[in-house]
Every structure is written in structure tokens, then in C-alpha cells.
Amino acid sequence: ILNVEQSPQSLHVQEGDSTNFTCSFPSSNFYALHWYSWETAKSPEALFVMTLNGDEKKKGRISATLNTKEGYSYLYIKGSQPEDSATYLCALKETSGSRLTFGEGTQLTVNP
Amino acid sequence: GAGVSQSPRYKVAKRGQDVALRCDPISGHVSLFWYQQALGQGPEFLTYFQNEAQLDKSGLPSDRFFAERPEGSVSTLKIQRTQQEDSAVYLCASSLVDNQYEQYFGPGTRLTVT
């Protein structure tokens, strides 16, 4: 069974705080690592697709890094805003198969 | 441009009823996926289509679950004789071409079996 793990499970921060969460995954058969943000009652929104070891990607105040050799990815949010409140999901795609295997998510709440 | 849409958004079914959940992928997307998200869990893969061909159905939890995509666009996930453990959010995703592109998700159908 493929195990994608995310930590922490939930996080409460104040507006303006910077924060980060972790996604760990088995490094064998790695193809790509996806990050999504999912607000309640909306569609999960794609943030990043990361494929290369050492990749760093940025989208506004959100950035992510990837280490495929040790099997982890970090998602960073700089200067959190209440609208960043969401569940952040990472998902692994392996070299074989088409499915994404998701972690359980990190639920972020940003208090104004 | 329209994203992935799903209907209904919410469905309450009595145990033993059959339900049908619809997914309209992004126009032109070849690949279509169904995932099930139980409360407190991450989404779990159910099945995958490339055009009208169901290439992987290994995630379907029982033979009560059936999915189809007869014309290679709209897909329906059918659950027969629903059980309480089927209560979950059912997510549909589509992608332009398998493997090379990200998957775009719909808002999901929240199924509650009473």
C-alpha cells in the first residue's frame, strides 16, 4: 500500500504569519508530486505539479520544494491571509499507473 | 471556460437505494478519474477512463460500484444498494492527456446514506 503522509493534520495561524507543511512519500517509482488547495464547497484547485528533484515553484505567496531522493515536499505560505484557509492536499503519481495517491491533507485556518 | 462539473452536489439516499452521480469533464479532456473521499481521509482512487475505455477499475470497493463513459465525455458513477459506508464525497477529475498533465477536479458530490 502506497503511503503518502502529511503533517501537521491541522494548523491554526494568525493573519500575517508564515507557515509550512510537509508531505512525505516513498521515493521509489516517483513520477510527479501534485499540490492542491481545497476550500469547503469548492473544487480542489491545482497549485503545483513538481517532477524534478530540487524543484522549487512559486505562485504568489505560496511556494513549494521537492526532494525526490529522500521523499518529501514542503509547502510554504508567506504572510498568511484568511482567504488561504483551506485543506492543502499533496498527491503522488508513480511511474506506473495513472492514479494520484493522496495524503490526508493539512487543514489550515488563518485567523484575522 | 467551464471547468469540471458534477451533479448532484448533494445526495441523500436511504440504505439500499441506487444512486447515479454525473461528471462533465472539461471539453476535450481525454482522461477522466473518479475518487472517493471519506470523512477525515484524503481522496482515494476509484477508476480511470481514457476516452470511453475504462483502463483501471481496481479502486472500486465492491461490485456495487459501476462507472461508465460511453461516448468519451460525460461519465456516470453508479452505486447499487447503497450502504452507510458509501457516505463520502465523490470527486471527478479530468486531464488533457494522461501522465503529462495535472488533473482538474470538480466540486464533488456529497453522498449521505441514511
Q: Calculate the terminal CA-CA distance of chain A, rounded to whole Å.
A: 40 Å
What general form of chain A does the structure show? globular
Structural class of chain A: mainly beta
Rg of chain A, rounded, reads 14 Å
Unreliable stretches of chain A: none
Describe the protein in words.
The complex is a heterodimer of chains A (112) and B (114). Chain A has 112 residues and is mainly beta. Chain A has strands spanning 5-7, 10-14, 19-24, 30-38, 45-50, 56-59, 62-67, 72-77, 86-94, 101-102, 106-111. The radius of gyration of chain A is 14 Å and the shape is globular. In chain A, the strands form two sheets. In chain A, strands 2, 4, 5, 9, 10 and 11 form a six-stranded mixed beta sheet that branches. In chain A, strands 1-3-8-7-6 form a five-stranded antiparallel beta sheet, with no helix packed on it. Chain A has no helices and eleven strands. With 114 residues, chain B is mainly β. Chain B has no helices and eleven strands. In chain B, the strands form two sheets. In chain B, strands 2, 4, 5, 6, 9, 10 and 11 form a seven-stranded mixed beta sheet that branches. Chain B has a four-stranded antiparallel beta sheet with strand order 1-3-8-7, with no helix packed on it. In chain B, strand 5 and strand 6 form a beta hairpin. Chain B is globular and about 40 Å long. The model of chain B has no long low-confidence stretch (mean pLDDT 94).
Summarize the structure.
Chain A has 112 residues and is mostly beta strands. Chain A has no helices and eleven strands.
SSE diagram, text form:
The complex is a heterodimer of chains A (112) and B (114).
Chain A: E1 5-7, E2 10-14, E3 19-24, E4 30-38, E5 45-50, E6 56-59, E7 62-67, E8 72-77, E9 86-94, E10 101-102, E11 106-111
Parallel strand pairs in A: 2-11
Antiparallel strand pairs in A: 1-3, 3-8, 4-5, 4-9, 6-7, 7-8, 9-10, 9-11
Chain B: E1 5-7, E2 10-13, E3 19-24, E4 31-37, E5 44-50, E6 53-56, E7 65-68, E8 75-79, E9 88-95, E10 104-105, E11 109-113
Parallel strand pairs in B: 2-11
Antiparallel strand pairs in B: 1-3, 3-8, 4-5, 4-9, 5-6, 7-8, 9-10, 9-11
